[in-house]
């Protein structure tokens, strides 16, 4: 009886583990795609389009013209991104300066016209099963 119980328990734990891994792989892939699309929109100097495609939190936290000016200045200083490679993602539920929720930090290693080792850091939020960018920075 004890052996049967342990076998069933092991089976249920395995099922939960494999199910959560497959879901975790799906959602970050969607979030990373949104982050990359946002970054390439900035690469094309379509700052207003990037701003408007962002999450409501991006627009609430940043005045449109100020955000566009800041993002454009960074592009001028560092130059256009020539290469971007996903470094890591990290799920968080309580990022600084944002309300609690489901978020994913997306980190890219980047190479720009004037900086061989830059980092793009993008925070995406999941709301109603859709991902949108809340914060973008390049350093």
Structural overview:
This protein has one domain: Roll (Nuclear Transport Factor 2, Chain: A). Helix 1 packs antiparallel against helix 2. It contains four helices and four strands. 50% of the residues lie in helices and 30% in strands. It is globular. The chain has 139 residues and is an alpha+beta fold. The longest helix is centred in the N-terminal third of the chain and has 42 residues, at 2-43.
Could you say which overall geometry the principal axes of the C-alpha atoms support? globular
Q: How would a crystallographer describe the biggest sheet? A: 4 strands, antiparallel
CATH topology description: Nuclear Transport Factor 2, Chain: A
Q: How many individual domains? A: 1
Span between termini = 60 Å
Percentage of residues in DSSP E strands: 25-35%
CATH architecture: Roll
Helix content: 40-55%
Give a brief description.
This protein is 50% helix and 30% strand.
State the main characteristics.
139 residues; alpha+beta; Nuclear Transport Factor 2, Chain: A; 4-stranded antiparallel beta sheet; 4 helices; 50% helix
Blueprint (SSEs and pairs):
Elements: H1 2-43, H2 47-53, H3 56-61, H4 64-78, E1 81-92, E2 102-112, E3 118-127, E4 130-138
Helix pairs in contact: 1-2
